[in-house]
Write a structure and sequence with these properties.
The complex is a heterodimer of chains A (320) and B (388). By secondary structure, chain A is an alpha/beta fold. Chain A folds into 2 domains: 230 residues, Rossmann fold, CATH 3.40.50.300; 66 residues, Alpha-Beta Plaits. In chain A, 35% of the residues lie in helices and 30% in strands. Chain A contains 11 helices and 14 strands. A 6-stranded mixed β-sheet of chain A has the order 6-7-8-3-9-10, sandwiched between helices. In chain A, helix 5 packs parallel to helix 6 and helix 9 packs across helix 10. Chain B has 388 residues and is mainly alpha-helical. Chain B contains 16 helices and 4 strands. In chain B, strands 2-1-3-4 form a 4-stranded mixed β-sheet, with helices on both faces. In chain B, helix 12 runs antiparallel to helix 15. Classes of the chains: A alpha/beta (320), B mainly alpha (388). At the A-B interface, helix 3 of A face helix 1 and helix 10 of B.
Chain lengths: 320, 388
């Protein structure tokens, strides 16, 4: 997918200069992006980067302090009740009633979206099939596993076939099998022409699903583009992950002084470095870390990826 | 409107899925009304006289008939049982008829009846009624004796006296209790006052539990998800409030019907009584929405709800009748919805008030409900900015 192709898509969501303050703290700072029909757009950033606040403003849940949001050709604010019908929100928390059955949850949210009668019944059945819960439709959701609840959470967002589906960290706390199932479902949505806004702090998910990605940190978009465009920003640097224990703090200090090392970041369990010519620098890095008191258990050289991009742009590892 | 009803239906469904609600909403209030009514309730207003001895004699028969004719409730029992009834307040006056009394009455001679009065305040008035009844029996017996001594046969004398009684309007004694409290509560049955008070207390308390369910829905993210759809904060809140209103209205209606059938509570004209209940339920549900939007902890909200419900009920006259309040407390109590609903019920229960008579109270209750709903809607929208 290239940027040129994106410009030909009909725009579904346009966000310009979005700002949000909580007291003196600016949590979203001049954020702008747009999403076209059939496009999956990712907001990639660590916890606390401002992703959920952006989504809350785009969904009309909270007002923006500055900037504008245009959804399906109409301005979006908390008062734009009609425009909100274009959105399918899948929040990070499991926004379902545990004392209702899966089917009752779907029927409830479907009615709120204006569905009724046979259409509601058919859509509910279709979604239950899609999320693999047709045989558990009559069970109270409090008896479901975490993965089943997550699938239902997504199913509710899909029920009314929204123009824009917003998924806020939909795989947090999900087992690998359910996670893969969720990702496959999302991949299928874009092919049906649905615009998808996907937030995550998992680099692999953003790489797998998103046509374009915005790397966000401390409320600002640090970079935006396709995966290839973003990786080019690193200038071809490699990432080296050092796993181990001991005095990682001293090792980080020593490694920062080593020529060719751009960034060092990490915690007590390991360090992440961005370097030019990773294979060539591997030996002195291992020696320097060991000399500073770090006991290495494994070393890994990773070719440039979104993690490297994030580290390159912010000086921090994405996992933080 | 469809979204409002959708939210309300789910609210009711969730309420019904919690079995513990059934006891607290439907069984406990009736038990409390029964307990309070039987312990503290006023009697039905009818004088109660217990007769002892003289069974089957002319004196006992004449006295019993005269008392009943005068509107007194008459019962018969042994001397010990009558004394027990008097000491427990189950009878106002006891009349003890000895064999000598019966014989003297049959012979047309003066009889010396023993009369005992219970300690409750109403007994004094009943004693006056009993004296009047005994006087009437005594007069009739004397008249009959005079006719018989003048040579008129006993049956003819009885017939002549009966005809005379019908042709002449007998003097009546109307007893008026000048005690302020007695006058205020005149016309109320044993359970009437307590039932109205407990109705208001329980409906408000039950409604305030809706605050906790709103907070739970916010914590689950359901409210945010609802409002991310084509539903305004006002509609989301109105739906929640409508659900709580429905639950409160069913509970209130159940208490009214149950107390009427089980304890003979007179709620007055059903239409205005139902309207008072509906308006009060609306205020209660709206108050729950405000608490549920302001607070973020459902357990704390439940505690605050119970505390607030009891304080407002106390101030509003649902524990002690506000007629006993001082002037200052009277003014304070008018800030509570309970007081306005209490006054409205008092109008229709005690004074046969009509819908027009209670319009001021209904107006205040409607205004309270609207203000609280608007405030709740504003606070709910603001609550979305707060992490839970």
């Amino acid at each position: 997918m290239t940027a040129d192709v994106q410009t030909h898509r009909a725009q579904v969501l346009g966000v310009k200069g979005l700002v949000k303050h909580y007291g003196a703290h600016t949590v979203v700072d001049d954020v702008s992006f747009h999403i076209g029909a059939g496009e999956t757009y990712g907001l990639l950033g660590p916890n606390g980067a401002g992703k959920t606040t952006i989504i809350s403003m785009v969904s009309g849940l909270i007002p923006a302090d500055a900037g504008s949001i245009e959804l399906a050709g109409s301005a979006m604010t908390p008062a734009s009740t009609r425009v909100k019908g274009h959105i399918g929100l899948v929040p990070q928390e499991l926004a379902i009633y545990p004392d209702l059955t899966a089917k009752e949850n779907l029927l409830f949210f479907g009615r709120l979206q204006g569905l009724h009668g046979k259409e509601l019944k058919h859509r509910t059945g279709d979604v239950l099939e899609l999320i693999g819960l047709a045989d558990r439709a009559g069970e109270q959701t409090k008896k479901f596993s975490g993965g089943m609840k997550r699938r239902l959470n997504i199913g509710i967002g899909l029920l009314h076939r929204p123009t824009l589906l917003i998924l806020d960290e939909p795989t947090v706390g999900v087992d690998p099998q359910s996670r893969n199932s969720i990702l496959e479902s999302v991949e299928g949505l874009a092919t049906e022409g649905m615009a998808v806004l996907y937030t995550t702090h998992y680099m692999e998910e953003a790489e797998r699903l998103c046509d374009r990605i915005a790397i966000i940190d401390e409320g600002r978009i640090q970079a935006e583009g396709t995966r290839g465009e973003l990786v080019e920003l690193t200038g071809g640097v490699d990432r080296i992950d050092l796993h181990g224990s001991g005095n990682t703090g001293a090792a980080a200090t020593a490694l920062r002084r080593l020529p060719g090392v751009q960034h060092v970041d990490g915690d007590a369990s390991g360090l992440t470095l961005t370097v030019h010519n990773g294979p060539g620098l591997l030996a002195p890095i291992v020696a320097e870390a060991g000399g500073a008191g770090m006991a290495l258990s494994s070393v890994e050289i990773v070719r440039p990826d979104l993690e490297s991009v994030f580290l390159h742009l912010t000086g921090k590892a994405l996992r933080d | 409107m469809r979204s409002i009803f959708g939210i309300a239906i789910v609210e009711v469904r969730l309420f019904l899925r919690d079995r513990s609600n059934i006891f607290f909403v439907f069984i406990f209030p009736l038990l409390l009304i029964l307990l309070l009514g039987s312990q503290f309730g006023a009697n039905s207003g009818q004088a109660r006289v217990a007769l002892s001895g003289g069974s089957g004699t002319g004196l006992a028969k004449a006295l019993s008939e005269q008392l009943k004719e005068d509107g007194v409730q008459v019962s018969s029992a042994g001397a010990a049982a009558v004394r027990d009834q008097l000491s427990r307040g189950r009878a106002d006056v006891g009349i003890f008829i000895s064999d000598d009394d019966s014989a003297a009455f049959a012979a047309g001679q003066p009889a010396d009846l023993e009369v005992l009065m219970a300690s409750q305040s109403a007994a004094q008035a009943v004693l006056q009624e009993v004296r009047a009844s005994i006087q009437a029996v005594s007069t009739e017996r004397r008249q009959r004796s005079l006719l018989e001594s003048a040579g008129v046969g006993a049956p003819e004398a009885a017939t002549a006296l009966e005809q005379a009684k019908e042709s002449v309007q007998q003097p009546r004694v109307e007893l008026v209790d000048t005690n302020d409290a007695t006058q205020v509560f005149q016309g109320l049955g044993r359970f009437d006052l307590g039932a109205a008070q407990q109705l208001l207390l329980f409906v408000f308390l039950s409604s305030l539990t809706g605050a906790a369910t709103l907070i739970k829905a916010r914590r689950l993210g359901v409210i945010a998800r609802v409002m991310a759809g084509p539903v305004s904060s006002w509609q989301a809140l109105a739906g929640q409030a409508l659900g709580r209103f429905g639950i409160a209205a069913v509970q209130g209606g159940y208490i009214m019907l149950g107390t009427a059938l089980l304890f003979g509570v007179d709620w007055g004209d059903p239409l205005p009584a139902g309207i008072i209940l509906a308006f009060f339920c609306a205020v209660s549900a709206a108050a729950a929405m405000v608490v549920g939007s302001v607070m973020d902890n459902d357990a704390a909200a439940s505690g605050v709800g119970v505390g607030l419900g009891l304080v407002l009920a106390g101030l509003g006259g649902s524990m002690v009748p506000p007629e006993f309040f001082s002037e200052t407390l009277q003014a304070v109590s008018r800030a509570t919805p309970h007081r306005w609903a209490y006054d409205a019920f008092a109008d229709i229960q005690r004074h046969d008030g009509t819908l027009a008579d209670i319009l001021p109270q209904l107006g205040v209750l409607a205004a309270m409900a609207l203000v609280l709903l608007a405030l709740g809607s504003f606070l709910l929208q603001r609550s979305l900015s707060r992490p839970l």
